[in-house]
Write a structure and sequence with these properties.
Largest sheet: 7 strands, mixed
Strand order of the largest sheet: 3-2-1-4-5-10-7
Radius of gyration: 19 Å
Order of helices and strands: HHEHEHEEHEEHHEEHHEE
CATH architecture: 3-Layer(aba) Sandwich
Number of strands: 10
CATH class: Alpha Beta
Number of domains: 1
CATH superfamily: Vaccinia Virus protein VP39
Distance between the termini: 26 Å
Number of helices: 9
Structural class: alpha/beta
């Protein structure tokens, strides 16, 4: 186990953790549907790799029951401790959260598991194939590996918006400079093959549409969370970022009812 915190694109701060909780709630139905699709049942041993604020651990705990064990792993030690405390306070005493860097060790702690799950984890990791291989090794015979990840290329508004495109460029360029893959979700079958998992048993695509007037908050919050990395990697200056955010706000205010698409959430799973 380790409590190190390697380089990460987004802020580690309370406002970012709340953004992650809100994002998780957006995708709760899509993730719950896949947990049911693979037949997650009472008593199953579960791992949420890169669990963040624990929203998916809660979904797992409700399905597997109080006698089971739901383990979360996150590289952020402070967030891991806070997540475990909140889950226990909500009555999910079967949950534990371990501070651990999945890129630094060859094995995953606590396995094997009947379900190994990761959402929006591989997106951030240059070592995504190696980490996926480790996750697969932690799956018990008869268990499942289930992964969901973003394809950010689908973010947009109709008619197209230059302001939204510029905000998107800041996001894509910063993530790219940090070694992230903004299309990780679309490459899941390839990643499964490269990691030795094999062809997925199934795949899934979930999307979200909402008015530009409200959807732009998702984009601006990511831009602000990325700001330290944007500045550190020379993607843009602080003045350029603030100008882009002001343009985005003004454009969305002028055209609040235009349809805006979120990133697609793509899933793939495999039974061992």
């Amino acid at each position: 186990m380790t409590t190190t915190t390697p380089e990460y694109s987004l802020r580690r701060a309370p406002e970012e953790y709340e953004r992650l909780r809100a994002q998780a709630r957006v995708w709760e139905a899509a993730t719950g549907r896949l947990l049911d699709r693979i037949g997650l049942a009472a008593g199953a041993r579960c791992l949420d790799a890169g669990c963040g604020p624990g929203e998916t651990m809660r979904l797992m705990a409700l399905r597997v029951g109080p006698a089971a064990r739901v383990t979360g792993i996150d590289v952020d030690a402070a967030l891991a401790a806070d997540t475990e405390h909140m889950l226990h306070a909500a009555g999910h005493r079967q949950c534990r959260v371990i501070a651990h860097d999945l890129t630094a060790y060859e094995s995953v702690p606590g396995g094997p598991y009947d379900l190994v799950f990761a959402r929006l984890l591989l997106f951030h990791l240059p070592e995504r194939v190696a980490v996926l291989r480790r996750l697969w090794q932690a799956v018990a015979p008869g268990g499942h590996l289930l992964v969901q990840d973003y394809d950010l290329e689908t973010v947009g508004v109709l008619p197209p918006s230059a302001a939204l495109d510029e905000a998107g460029r800041l996001i894509f360029d910063t993530f790219g400079a940090m070694g992230c893959d903004v299309r990780a979700g679309a490459t899941l079958p390839t990643l499964f093959a490269q990691a030795g998992v094999g062809e997925p048993d199934g795949t899934d695509v979930a999307g979200r549409l909402e008015p530009y007037g409200t959807g732009r908050h998702m984009v601006s919050s990511v831009v602000r969370s990325l700001l330290p990395a944007t500045l550190a990697r020379g993607v843009a200056t602080a003045a350029q970022v603030e100008a882009a955010l002001a343009d985005l706000e003004a454009d969305a205010t002028r055209h609040p009812d235009r349809p805006m698409t979120w990133p697609l959430m793509m899933g793939a799973w495999k039974r061992k």
